[in-house]
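User: Run a structure prediction on this.
Assistant: Running it now.
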Amino acid sequence: MTEFTYSLCIIGGQTAPDDYVVRYRGQTWEVGRVMFYDSGPQQRWQWSTFTYPCANGVAYSLNVALDELKVAIMALPEEARCKHNGPGAGRRRSRPSDFR
């Protein structure tokens, strides 16, 4: 099995070109995201991890961005790589009892 896979990022049923989520060892949740930004004088790929501690960076090609994200993930202890810290992981699912 490949350590890392990536696929199009889907938010609210929509996708954008050149926007990807990265999974580790076939997990159902994402460990990071890589997206293309065409801003400023140079085109860039931005990457970030959904881990704790998190890491992020900028690269000038998709392959370099994916490689840098993989290095950041592999620098973490195994339990940090396999714990769901992605979007929604810390959200409260219901209102607290004292909510007014």
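The chain has two helices and five strands.
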